[in-house]
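Lesson 9: reading folded outputs for more than one chain in a single document. The general rule is that every protein is listed as its sequence immediately followed by its structure tokens, and records are never interleaved. Here is the first one.
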Amino acid sequence: MQAPQCHHIEGFRLGNSPIGRYIFGKIKDMINLDGRIAVITGGSRGIGAACAVLFARAGADVGILFYSDKRAADRVAADVRKRGKKALIVRVDVARMKDCEDAIRTVTRELGNVDILVNSAGIWEHAPVARMSTAEWEKTISVNLGGTMNMIRAVVPSMISRKYGRIINIASTAGQRGEAEHSHYAASKGGVIALTKSLGVELIPRGIWVNCVSPGWVDTDMASGTLKNRRRKKEIEESIPRGRVAGAMDVAGPVLFLASNLADHVVGANISVNGGSVLA
């Protein structure tokens, strides 16, 4: 006869007991996004795409916002639908407030009111300060920081009226420690962290949780040029106590946690997801 399934919490063996079933049933409920509508910017690739799929697995219908790669967005949407959830793809330039407002109106009309916003859209471009143009500076700030704020402003009025919302911003270790020859990127992500802290305390009385995740190196399209260099990749891996570069799903997991009821008392927080390379 098959042994009953056992669960372990802090050294306690719960077994297939009523209390064990109760506790793990509650945990399952707390990570359950059934009936929720999530909007994810940068949803066609990398961290955004991983979040879209993971949120669908947790029960959410997903608005996948993309900028340039519709084919990739279509593939992510197909993956969401395979899990029995609704998916809608919408093209948006997050640097343009009107685009953000139009995208949220479209999602609301087609899927319903937005419960969860994940701000994952971003750019990372090399630009030593001595050669950085005004256009390069403004582009990075307007997409990474301005785009995050634009999307928040687009969803917050509805969230306030319903007294519920979860906003998770994707920042970066660069925003914590700086990054040589990417100072515009580091400044934009440092701004995202400060924005998260400010809005976290401003909006929690209105029933809206705002938090962020700061990844280190992640094996996505954004970092592919650097990680293709075997010597450079080895150097990067050796700088990470965990011993490896993260995958997109390594970041999507903490994002899902922040979107769930398990994070009920987490407000204005910045969760470092970098394998121990930056402890802040």
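And here is the second record, again sequence then tokens.
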Amino acid sequence: LVPVGSLCVWDTKPVMLQGTRVAGPGLDNKVGVFLALLLTSELMDRQIPGRLRFHATTQEEGVMFGAGYAGRSVSAPEEDVRFAMVADATFGSDSSQDDGTFELGKGPVLGKGPILSRLHLEYLRGLASRLGIDYTLEPLVRSTGTEADVLSVSGQGIPAVLVSIPLRYMHSPVEVVDLDDVDTCLKLISKALQDGDLWSF
């Protein structure tokens, strides 16, 4: 009845869980796009030291064609790209475990690895401390598995920083995130983008 090669998807809708948790399909990386939309609203009437460009890219789980286009589109000689801030999801859990997952509700997860900008990471860590925002570091020994991998080698290289939101049940139709983590990411990134120090590196 169903031809070979037919596309099938789970027919599930987002639902609110207890407290500030939400479950739904494709939250990796709809939560990153949601964060970007909140940022546009937050920064609409604020003074920004530079020009912001938001990209919601495709095929991040595979060949990253979308990130490649984004990187090429801002790598023209007339563009003055200072940095790329990538918002994504990372593997989450409900408790502190030594298994490479990060606890939901404990704030943003900041990526640290050889392909990411150390200067921008240290700036974000310092800002988070000044704002009283809890965060966790995610050690990434090679690539990040996110758009930051492509953006960091686009053109002459774009300094990239990775801010992730913990997400439980990754790559399932019932992914779970904590909206408190979205709020703290919003606060951190919004303050950072309004600060001339971030744009001076």
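What the second record shows: The chain is about 30% helix and 20% strand.
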